[in-house]
Amino acid sequence: MTQKRNSRIALLAVAMLLSGAMLGLISEDSSAADYDAVGFISSSDSSGVSVTYINQATGNTASITSLDDGSYSFENLVNGDYSVRYSKAGSLSVLDTWSIPADLPLDDVSM
Fold first, then answer.
1. Does residue 69 sit in helix, strand or coil?
2. Which stretch of DSSP H or E encloses residue 14?
3. How distant, in Å, are the alpha carbons of 18, 48, 55, 101 from that of 77?
4. Interval 74-104: pLDDT, tens
């Protein structure tokens, strides 16, 4: 009877260790840092510039249009490398890359 009980205790201990390890993995993924990126476009007409990023690891994309003062922002960016295109009708597009969070704060972009 004692051997059976010890086996159950050992099995329970292993199960607790495994579930603790799994919780550690899950909580680490769910607590990944998110970053907000704010930038400015410096040109004579900086409003209405389309800013589009592509997360190189996931393929996720998002686009926004700059405000009248040339500012734009993206929220909740995860760590990683991004390709970024700034475009406006009548202007040449500008391609850029970001490495989040290393490149924060973002440099001004000239169109």
1. coil
2. helix 2-30
3. 31, 22, 9, 9
4. 999 999 999 999 999 988 899 999 999 888 8
Q: Please state, in angstroms and rounded to a whole number, the distance separating the CA atoms of residues 49 and 55.
A: 20
CA angle 82-35-80, nearest 5°? 30
- Token duo for residue 24: 């550690």
CB count in 10 Å sphere of residue 9: 10
Whole-model pTM?
0.67
State both tokens at 65. Answer: 């249009």
Q: What length does the chain have?
A: 111
Q: How far apart are CA 96 and CA 39, in angstroms?
A: 12
Which residues pair with residue 62 across a beta bridge? 53
Say which DSSP state 105 is in: S
